[in-house]
Amino acid sequence: MSDDGVRLVKPGTKYEGAQGVTYNAGVSRNTAGAEKVCMNVLPMPPGVKSKPHIHKGIETIAYMLEGECTLFHGQKLENQTLVKQGEQIFIPDDVPHAPCNLSDKKCVWIVVHSSGDDQDELIRTEELDYILE
User: HSE on the CB side for 14, CA within 13 Å?
Assistant: First the structure.
């Protein structure tokens, strides 16, 4: 049987991103050899907040599988969008953002980036941390 590059990624591997949240690893450069796209699962217990960041030159699409979560976004995180179960949100490249689970229930995101790894070109915007404190 020849290797056609198709890869199955099973659940179970977790990692902490520079965003300060713990992901369930999905398809990426590290798990499947993907170079142009990656997808991970982000469960967020109540009260969990990502650290503000951008993905330089990388677009993001996120689908809310379970629950709801507020996405802070904009140059000063001045915008807030509540994303509910079944909804999707697009975040253009270079837009500062931080999902924050302000609800009293767990939420679960499916997150896709236009790069082989969600940590590629991730830049923390520490100067915005005070906004979420």
Answer: 7
Phi, psi for 101 (deg, rounded to 5): -85, 95
Distance CA 26, CA 3 (A): 20
What is the C-alpha separation between 109 and 43, in angstroms, rounded? 6
CATH class, domain 36-132, is mainly beta
Model pLDDT for residues 18-68, shown as the tens digit of each residue: 999 999 999 999 999 999 999 999 999 999 999 999 999 999 999 999 999
Give me the residue spans of the domains in the chain.
Answer: 36-132
Q: What whole-number distance in Å separates Cα of residue 39 and Cα of residue 116? A: 9
